[in-house]
Every structure is written in structure tokens, then in C-alpha cells.
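Write out this protein's structure.
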Amino acid sequence: MSVLEEVLQANEEYASAFGAKSALALPPARGFAILTCMDARLDPAKYAGLSEGDAHVIRNAGGRASDDAIRSLVISYKLLGTKEWFIIHHTNCGMEFFTDEEIRGLLANSLETAALGADGFYDVGSGPGSAEAKYIDWLTISDNAQSVTEDVSRVRAHPLVPARIPIYGYIYDVTTGRLVEIPDATKAGAAS
């Protein structure tokens, strides 16, 4: 069975028991949002105790406060009433395994999927590549706690973010399943 067939079969099973979920309200019932990484090992519903309709979960590579993530957070409070935000990075994040220069070089050489070895990512395909990668800030991570603090600070300082919204900074530990607070980040995100 292909992945497409697996997904469609799972959706059919899900939809057959959908029931009252069609009555869920548009605003998140618990009034908060989480910005976190797209890593498949993270299940925000489980680690944050969420049910459908509870919270907004915004995901991208690294859980970084990119312009688009901030756009989503602003929509979350302005139009849908969230009152608290979490920025949650995680241990062993793939964004720690390369730099902007490295991914730009990999993409310039080839658009094929790279491999990860003991010395980092390396190309296994042949060209063509593209130089377009040099125009993207890849938001790589060299220090996880520092990146959480930077992201919370960036969101806090954004002119479209009200000072009344508390922004909490955490790292999810992929070996224990625990959320570990980054005090400097939470301090930077304190509501005023």
C-alpha cells in the first residue's frame, strides 16, 4: 500500500467517527498557541495535553519565530482570541546539524536529498542545483536555549504583538518527553 493509500484509508476511518467534532468553535477553546518544530518525533497534542479544538499549533523547521510564524501568531490573537503563547524548541533538532552556508552549498550542488554522516550532511546526488538558497535565512540553531530566548524576544518586540500576551520559552526533551523551561526566554516574554 502506498503512503497516499495509507493516509486516505486512515482519513476514512477518522471521518467515520467524526461525530460532534463538526461543532467545534473556530477559536481555540483553551485560548493559547504553540509555536514548535515540525520534527515528527514531537506530538504537541500529547506533550501539551491537547484535544482537537483546544489550541493553535504552528509548526516549522526548528519552531523558529520566522515572519510567517509571527503572522500566524498575530492572526491567532487578533482574530481568534488566544491570550498566551508558547515557543517550544527541542533537543536533538536537525536545525542544529548544519549552518546556512552548508545548506546553501548543498542546494547549489544538487536538489537531491542529502545524507547525514558522522561529519554532517553531504550530497549523494548530482546536479543541477540552484543558487536561490542564498536568499533564504534558514534560521539554523547553534545554541538551543539561546535560540528559544532569541525567538521569544523577537516575538515580544514585534510591533503587532500586544505586551499583555505572555510568551513562554521551553525545550522539549526528545529523550524524556519533558518540557524544560528556559527562564531567560520566559523572562523575555513576560507580559506587561
